[in-house]
Design brief:
This protein is of the alpha+beta class and about 150 residues long. It has five helices and six strands; from the N terminus they run H-E-E-H-E-H-E-E-H-E-H. The protein has one domain: Alpha-Beta Plaits.
Length: about 150
């Protein structure tokens, strides 16, 4: 397990941000995490569309991988971000995409100081509400009511 963590650390590309004579390095993964947190707050997003490897990592670690479905290209003072999502059935895709672009740009620029040149949103699918989803929502509502009493 330590070997895998070491490989991840070695594969993280550090990007220099130069301020005068000092240098600050921001990893692509850090920028992707800020973007992922911003996306998770947008209404109408069912989830992130990530690859097989990120799904396995999330399953084994038990931690939510906020960088799943996000690709970042960081330059010296700017960044380009691609976000792959699955939208909820009934959500207006243009509105969801615009909200993602706005929130991601604001979050990354505020947290890193990098200028975000592009936020490209790729809709990979639509999640239709199933009977199982309705049952889970009903159970969650009942649990909330029980806890409130």
């Amino acid at each position: 397990m330590e070997e895998n963590n070491q490989e991840l650390v070695e594969n993280i590309e550090e990007i220099p941000v130069v301020e005068g004579n000092d240098t600050i390095k921001i990893a692509n993964e850090a920028v992707a995490t800020y973007a992922g947190i911003a996306v998770s707050e947008v209404s109408g997003v069912y989830g992130m569309a990530g690859g097989f490897a990120s799904g396995i990592t999330e399953t084994f670690s038990g931690k939510k991988n906020f960088s799943k479905g996000i690709k970042v290209e960081v330059g010296e003072k700017d960044a380009k971000i691609d976000v792959s999502i699955i939208v909820e059935y009934g959500a207006r895709i243009p509105e969801v995409a615009f909200e993602i672009q706005t929130r991601v740009k604001k979050a990354v620029e505020n947290m890193t100081g990098l200028k975000v040149l592009e936020v490209n949103v790729h809709v990979q699918g639509v999640h239709a509400i199933t009977e199982k989803d309705k049952e889970e929502n009903q159970e969650n509502e009942e649990n909330v009511e029980t806890n409130e009493e």
